[in-house]
UniProtKB/TrEMBL annotation:
Organism for this UniProt entry: Notothenia coriiceps (black rockcod)
Membrane spanning residue stretches: none
UniProt-listed GO biological process terms: protein transport; signal transduction
Pfam family, one: VHS
Family: Belongs to the TOM1 family.
Gene Ontology cellular component annotations, sorted alphabetically: endosome; membrane
Domain of life of the source: Eukaryota
An example molecular function term from Gene Ontology annotations: ubiquitin binding
Record keywords, A-Z: Protein transport, Transport
InterPro entries in alphabetical order: ENTH_VHS, VHS_dom
SMART domains: VHS (SM00288)
Protein name: TOM1-like protein 2
VHS domain mapped to chain residues: 20-124
Amino acid sequence: MEFLLGNPYSTPVGHCIERATDGSLQNEDWTLNMEICDIINETEDGPKDAIRAVKKRLNGNRNYREVMLTLTVLETGVKNCGHRFHALITSRDFVDGVLVKIISPKNNPPTIVQDKVLALIQVR
């Protein structure tokens, strides 16, 4: 049913997440990552919109550069966002439906991706 909600990158936080997780970036854009946290914390739909954009970027993505940048955005949110965001990323739906799928043996992700996902799961 999520397809009925439109493009997750069309929201302000979604657009920032799309830019912050672009595989052509050489390094993390920490200014943009913190701007994402500000939007999540300061807007009503920020947490929900951010999760939709993160899910879209992570689900089925074999570009592990983009996956790592997205996991860094997620980690930044864990450390800098409030309860509304935490509640969404600690839900069984998100952990099992997104994070665990990334490290599934059928996807065969690089060790660095596996380590980052496992670290995020442990933090929750």
